[in-house]
Amino acid sequence: MSVASTKAFYSQVAAGALYACAISDVLGSGSNDERHQLLAALRTIPDAMQTVLGSRQKIAEAARQFAPARRYWTVVGNGFNAVAAEEVRIKLSELCYKSIACDITEDKKHIDLSCEPMIIVCATGLNDGTASDVAKEIAIYRAHKALPIVIATEGEQRFDAAAAVISVPNVDHRVAFILSVMVGHLFGYEAALAIDSLARPLRSAREVIEHAVERGGVGSELLSKVRTDIGTPARRFFDALTTGTYDGNLEASTAVRVVTVLRNVMANDPLQAYQNDSGKISSPEALLDDTTSALTRAIDELTRPVDAIKHQAKTVTVGISVATRDSSTGRSCRHSSMLELHAIVCRTRPSRSSPISILRSSRSSASLATASRARSSRTRRW
Questions:
Q1: In whole angstroms, what is the distance from residue 140 CA to residue 148 CA?
Q2: Is domain 55-192 in CATH 3.40.50.10490, yes or no?
């Protein structure tokens, strides 16, 4: 695999288990019973994963309740669950645009509890002694105002100090960590949607301005229309801001700027209020431009497009190195990124400004077929 991906993780866990069984058989280590038990445990995972999918609503509720308001996140696990924690950290980070720590469960209390983070605790398939120890760690987290959310095997009752417990089916302890990963992946997806939903009142407020401009009119008329309609989305934003919902994802300077311009627009005398706060010579156009700019900045900070990850390395590094010959110089050259390969195939310069569209077009079957034929033809000429 060229890059880490969700499907690659699950498939390589299965492939790794098969490979380990084959190696142990060749070396004569372990027993047939042990290998059979591991492979049988793997066969239970698809049904268990279906059960986890059935609990997606509970996972979504936990994500909506806890994720948006916490600025700092971390993921912990021990044993096999340490592997799960590392994978969950990747998915949370790329979907939710967070820099996230990953630690061993019992080490966390010595590291950064001072930031009072939301802590995803991967704790599936634990034996009695380890589960008791993890329960103590969770109590320590909560005592230091952290927010532990525990992924545990169903029936486990020792994690009552957690803010929330997400249960998964009881499977063999050697493969239980896979279910921790799945819950973490779903939690990351739902958390990203929850964060993105915070931008809705701001998008609605910006649409009020855009629609007023589209309908036309002089500056004072536009401002009057906006002032009449912008109150509802603005108050929704103010209410959520007061409860701390935006604390985890909206910069303080951005929030202050948005509140200021919205209050200016809604004031009895918008232009005078704007001039008093900004120190600028006021005009309807200037006020509406500043309001649109502030709303756009806030929307950008909150937007989480789960189908198009910002700055995602996959859009520029997936692919293999391809040796070609430059027709103008006759020299051999090597193109290692998909963007460059796309440029070779289509005889265009790589468009660095829109890597997502290039990646999507190259993924379609028609594009792949065309690219393959074109590449074969050019290879023969070279």
A1: 10
A2: yes
**Can you list the alpha helix ranges (DSSP code H) found in the chain?**
6-27, 32-54, 56-66, 80-96, 128-143, 177-197, 200-215, 219-229, 231-242, 252-266, 270-278, 284-302, 314-317, 338-346, 355-363, 365-381
* Distance, CA of 326 to CA of 353 (rounded, Å): 24
Average pLDDT, integer, range 168-192 = 96
Taking residues 241-269, report their average pLDDT: 95
Q: Counting Cβ atoms within 10 Å, is residue 372 exposed (0-12), middle (13-18) or buried (19+)?
A: exposed
| pLDDT of 84 strictly over 60 | yes
* SS3 at position 225: helix
Q: How many CB atoms lie within 10 A of CB 142?
A: 16
Whole-number Å distance between alpha carbons of 185 and 83: 14
What does the pLDDT look like over 34-58, one tens digit per residue?
A: 999 999 999 999 999 999 999 999 9
- Confidence band (pLDDT; 50, 70, 90) for 357? very low
> Once rounded to an integer, what is the mean pLDDT over residues 12-31?
92
**Among 350, 345, 353, CA closest to 373:** 345
How many Cβ atoms sit within 10 Å of the Cβ of residue 328? 6
- Residue given tokens 């190259």 in the structure block: 362
pLDDT at res. 329: 59
Whether the Cβ atoms of residue 267 and residue 234 lie closer than 8 Å to each other: no
Task: Name, in order, each residue with C-beta under 8 angstroms of 259's C-beta and a sequence gap of 6 or more.
Answer: 238, 241
Listed by start position, the domains of the chain span 55-192, 200-302, 314-381
Residues in the chain: 382
Sorted by sequence, the CB contacts under 8 Å of residue 1 that are 6+ apart come out as 8, 12
CA distance 34 to 221: 78
